[in-house]
Write a structure and sequence with these properties.
One of its GO terms (molecular function) is ligase activity. Keywords: Ligase. By secondary structure, the protein is α/β, with parallel strands linked by helices. The strands form three sheets. Strands 1, 4, 5, 6, 7, 8, 9 and 10 form an eight-stranded mixed sheet that branches. Strands 11, 12, 13, 14, 15, 16, 17 and 18 form an eight-stranded mixed sheet that branches. Helix 5 links the parallel strand 6 and strand 7.
Length: 506
């Protein structure tokens, strides 16, 4: 028995250590090994591995290029797999896929989040259709787990071909600059087919997906900060859709008045400000985790806590495109709203929106369809919802940003709010164009008509008088009013209609 145990220990150590030259090559590329990454992600000593001895077709190295199992993050159970680029470039074959599918099934069965550390050249060419079949089984499980357990993808190297779809199906995707690339067809194939020469970074690097395609939710400079970011995100997410997100003790938010809120937002509707300054005053300790920070920056989506409870915040950003909604902003906010609703995270909407971005590029690009995604997401949401109108809320964009008409539970407004079909100048130009054209002093007449329009239809209490705003509040009360509203709504129960599923305007 002693000899067997000794041999057993040597074998496990040898498998875990990997080939020295391959490990050294990985380090030279500025990348950690799969096991080193898991050590950074998980609590010390918590990792429990499965299928250490599994091998690919025709033998090959143990583990078949993926380390899989479970561990804890801040004491909470998560399931993980980390592709091992030192073995066959992390390529996916039948046994490799079977290991991933096993931990995915265990994650769903136990109601635990799953984190995928991706570093793979794609399907293993030698295994042909078996590799493709393996990917299909992973994708099917991801879709089945969507809205049931949180799914987080971390791209730490190449994620090419079919491998790129797994991060795209995840709830959140992290990427590391300089080492991560994600694309369906690489630069060589692009050059062969189109004649276009492009680098790996320009085709599918972290900054491309973080700022242009919107595939990457978070972009980090190195693996350490990236995996620490994953831990931070997990601290704000529930284990599954049947339990609430982890809460902290209340911190007195219901009586916390913030004088600075009366100074941040200019009264003048056309003067810009950073909505993140408002967000920092509203949430606990000014601490929030912004999702898609560099993509569609005219809307801000963030996870935070208010009085210890996790919330999702959506806010128009006046310093970028005046805070208008466009195709990308609608997609970004819609996906975030749907995630929060799926996992029982209440929604807070900070509204200061002049409308949808006009122009042929937007219209021909499907702005109507993409805007409808956000509309659909809010209409479908059954979690507690609080809307705060800070300044402008014009036209269809007002409706889309969780207005009373689409089901918000509590609508609050500042005394600076302007809710209307359009701005007063545009309205006057349309309604009184003949009078203005015939006037001897059109500028003076226009100013008078604008003032009349404001006083009759856009004064801050007009919507409240018609029951479309529940209260007009002092800006300094905003944090307290939101906290009180969420406390009232905490036990909200809303059953969706019985149906297989809706037909979202995808």
């Amino acid at each position: 028995m002693a000899e067997l145990r000794e041999e057993h220990g040597r074998r496990r150590s040898r498998i875990a250590a990997g080939r020295r030259e391959a490990v050294e090559r990985q380090h030279r590329l500025g990348k950690r090994t799969a096991r080193e990454r898991l050590d950074l992600l998980l609590d010390v000593g918590s990792f429990v591995e499965v299928d250490l001895y599994r091998r690919g077709a025709g033998g090959g190295p143990h583990t078949d290029g993926v380390v899989a199992g479970s561990g804890t993050v801040d004491g909470r159970r998560v399931f993980v797999y980390a592709q091992d680029f030192t073995i066959s470039g992390g390529s996916l074959g039948a046994q490799h896929a079977a290991k991933i599918q096993k931990v995915m099934d265990l994650a769903v069965a136990t109601g635990s989040p799953i984190v995928a550390l991706n570093d793979s050249g794609g399907a293993r060419i030698q295994e042909g259709v078996l590799a493709l079949h393996g990917y299909g089984g992973i994708f099917r499980r991801q879709v089945a787990a969507s809205g049931v357990i949180p799914q987080i993808a971390v791209v730490l190297g190449p994620s090419a071909g079919g491998a790129a779809y797994s991060p795209a199906l995840a709830d959140f995707t992290f990427m590391v600059r300089d080492t991560a690339q994600m694309y369906l067809t690489g630069p060589d194939i692009v050059a062969q087919v189109t004649g276009e020469r492009v680098s790996h970074a320009d085709l599918g690097g972290a900054d491309v997906h973080g700022s242009r395609s919107g595939v990457a939710s978070f972009v980090h400079d190195d693996e350490e900060s990236c995996l620490e970011g994953v831990r931070e995100l997990l601290s704000l997410l529930p284990d599954n859709n049947l339990v609430p997100p982890p809460a902290l003790p209340p911190c007195g938010a219901e009586t916390d008045y913030r004088p600075r809120l009366a100074e941040i937002v200019p009264v003048e509707p056309n003067r810009p400000y950073d909505i993140r300054s408002v967000l920092a005053e509203v949430v606990d300790d000014g601490d929030y985790l912004e999702v898609h920070e560099h993509w569609a920056r005219n809307v801000v989506c963030a996870l935070a806590r208010i009085d210890g409870h996790v919330v999702g915040v959506v806010g128009n950003q006046p310093v970028v495109l005046a805070g208008v909604l466009d195709i990308s902003a609608s997609q970004k906010a819609a996906r975030f709203v749907r995630f929060c609703d799926a996992f029982g995270i209440p929604l807070v909407s900070l509204v200061d929106v002049p409308g949808f971005l006009p122009g042929t590029e937007q219209e021909l690009g499907g702005a109507i369809r993409h805007g409808a995604k956000l509309l659909y997401a809010y209409c479908e949401a059954t979690v507690p919802r609080v809307q705060v109108i800070l300044r402008k809320a014009y036209g269809g964009a007002y409706i889309v940003m969780d207005s009373r008409s689409v089901g918000t539970d509590l609508s609050l407004a500042w005394p600076t709010n302007e809710i209307a079909v359009m701005g007063p100048e545009g309205a006057v130009n349309l309604l009184h164009r003949r009078e203005l054209a015939a006037s001897d002093d059109p500028a003076r007449l226009r100013a008078a008509l604008v003032e009349d329009y404001r006083s009759e239809l856009m004064h801050p209490y007009h919507a409240a008088e018609h029951g479309l705003v529940d209260d007009v509040i002092d800006p300094v009360e905003t944090r307290a009013a939101i906290a009180r509203g969420l406390a009232v709504l905490r036990d909200k129960r809303a059953e969706p209609p019985r149906r297989k599923h809706g037909n979202a305007p995808l």
